[in-house]
Specification:
With 409 residues, the chain is mainly α. Among the domains are: 5-99, Rna Polymerase Sigma Factor, Chain: A (Orthogonal Bundle); 101-224, no CATH class; 226-292, no CATH class. It has 19 helices and no strands. The protein has helices at residues 5-31, 34-55, 61-84, 88-94, 102-113, 120-131, 136-143, 147-164, 173-195, 205-221, 226-239, 265-278, 284-297, 306-319, 323-337, 339-347, 360-371, 375-387, 392-408. Helix 1 runs antiparallel to helix 2, helix 10 (205-221) packs antiparallel against helix 11 (226-239) and helix 16 (339-347) packs antiparallel against helix 17 (360-371). The relative contact order is 0.06.
Length: 409
């Protein structure tokens, strides 16, 4: 039975989300031409709408789209070859025109887009465009930059791939683990920009959700990599709290004050299960997922196992010295051992320059001072945090706490 227009559009939208990377990657593998691949993928999706309305949604939408894009690419190659009198080139292309399994295609595309020879911002933009199918406008809006900036990043990345001869492939076994770190770092950066944007805005759910989708893709297609599962677990556990993170005015609600009944228990269950599978890996994403799981499993903030969290932070710091991790550990230490321990840990941070301008440092000091009853000093620290807060909502929170301390003092 033929589907109605609304059903066709819904099916096409679902296919776009799930199959864009496969369609795009197939043409890249077939032709080596990233610009042609994008043109052919776009045309395949454009042709699908009237064709599916007329003929019905195919049983395998992704296969239909790959075939349409491949035929278009071959037509273009034939025309180019005819113009140059080199029809043998088309024969060579046709010899490799059959698509590989979708998982292989997507994984090739992810590793190529995240190649370390590309600048980080170009890796992010190209991954979101080529793998996820986000438009240039959508990427620009997500990162609050101009469309021209995003276009240039993507163009430079494509030129670098072509000019440097970066191969379109999953790295060989000996190099795969090292290269996977770069892939996971790009996904984590995309999620962070959605969950806690660097520009100070509050949250961009669509970007965080796209990072979760990318993490699912890599975890599913690299099942022997514990850190891939660890990253997915971490993102699911953090994303599970999205409904409780903002108040009615759009301000951020701190973890201990969130309404835990609004947390997504399905995501928590999946994240905890993945984290348990990955714990043997003992990598940074796995350890961060274990910390997030401790928060997720506590029915109320007071029931949090802070001793376990401190121990996990100690393991994380042993892997790699990181001042932000050290600051988070100071908070956990304060919850386990009291506010004086928190204050001592903040004041003893070994890399104050790395945290210069970070509003969390005076805020964490202020919290410890407040709990010690040193309200005037706490108010001063909150005012210092307010002065460098990344957005108005956080600044208002610090201002309110400072005012309360000043009244008491």
């Amino acid at each position: 039975m033929r589907a109605g227009p609304a059903q066709v559009r819904a099916a096409l939208a679902e296919a776009y989300r799930g199959e864009w990377g496969v369609v795009f990657g197939t043409i890249v593998r077939m032709t080596g031409d990233w610009e042609l691949a994008e043109d052919c993928a776009q045309e395949a999706f454009a042709r699908a709408l009237p064709a599916w309305e007329q003929e019905g949604v195919p049983r395998r939408p992704g296969a239909w789209l790959v075939t349409a894009a491949r035929h278009r690419a071959l037509d273009v190659l034939r025309r180019r070859a005819t113009e140059r009198g080199k029809l043998s080139e088309v024969a060579a292309r046709e010899a490799v025109r059959e698509p590989q399994p979708p998982g292989d295609e997507r994984l090739r595309l992810v590793f190529t887009c995240c190649h370390p020879a590309l600048p980080l911002e170009s890796r992010v933009a190209l991954t979101l465009r080529a793998v996820s199918g986000l438009t240039t406008r959508e990427i620009a809006r997500a990162f609050l930059v101009g469309e021209d900036t995003v276009s240039q990043r993507i163009l430079r990345a494509k030129r670098k791939i072509a000019g440097a001869g970066i191969p379109y492939r999953v790295p060989p076994p000996g190099a795969r683990a090292e290269r996977l770190d770069g892939v996971l770092a790009v996904i984590y950066l995309v999620f962070t920009e959605g969950y806690a944007p660097s520009d100070g805005s509050t949250v961009r759910d669509n970007l965080a959700e796209e990072a979760v989708r990318l993490a699912r893709l890599v975890a599913a297609e690299a099942p022997d990599e514990p850190e891939a599962r660890g990253l997915l677990a971490l993102l699911l556990l953090q994303h599970s709290r999205r409904a409780a993170r903002l108040d009615a005015d759009g301000g951020l609600v701190t973890l201990e004050r969130q309404d835990r009944t609004r947390w997504d228990r399905t995501l928590i269950a999946e994240g905890v299960a993945l984290g348990r599978e990955s714990v043997a890996g003992d990598g940074p994403y796995t350890l961060q997922a274990a910390i997030a799981a401790q928060h997720a499993l506590a029915p109320v903030a007071a029931a949090t196992d802070w001793a376990a969290i401190v121990a996990l932070y100690d393991r994380l710091l042993a892997l790699r010295a990181n001042p932000v991790v050290a600051l988070n550990r100071a908070v956990a230490l304060g919850m386990r051992d009291g506010p004086q321990a928190q204050l001592n840990a903040v004041d003893a941070l070994c890399s104050p320059k790395a945290l210069a301008g970070n509003h969390a440092v005076p805020a964490v000091r202020a919290d410890a001072l407040h709990r010690l009853g040193r309200t005037r000093e706490a108010a001063e620290a909150y005012r210092a945090a307010e002065a460098i807060a990344p957005n108005g909502a956080i600044a208002r929170e610090y201002a309110q706490r400072a005012a309360e301390g000043e009244l008491v003092g």
